[in-house]
Amino acid sequence: MPRIDDILDQIGQANYFTTLDLARGYWQVPVTEEDRHKTAFISPFGLHQFK
């Protein structure tokens, strides 16, 4: 795994930059309907599963 200072050195001369929503992007992975029950969990607010 590269170190952050090595990554910053590599992109220091870049002409383009981008940002990724890593916080919310993770939760946006589609799950097929037949597999949604595998993601189910219970919380104090009820039974939930990913869509």
UniProtKB/TrEMBL annotation:
It comes from the Eukaryota. InterPro entries: DNA/RNA_pol_sf (IPR043502), Rev_trsase/Diguanyl_cyclase (IPR043128), RNA-dir_DNA_polymerase (IPR053134). PANTHER family: RIBONUCLEASE H (PTHR24559:SF454), TRANSPOSON TY3-I GAG-POL POLYPROTEIN (PTHR24559). This is Reverse transcriptase domain-containing protein.
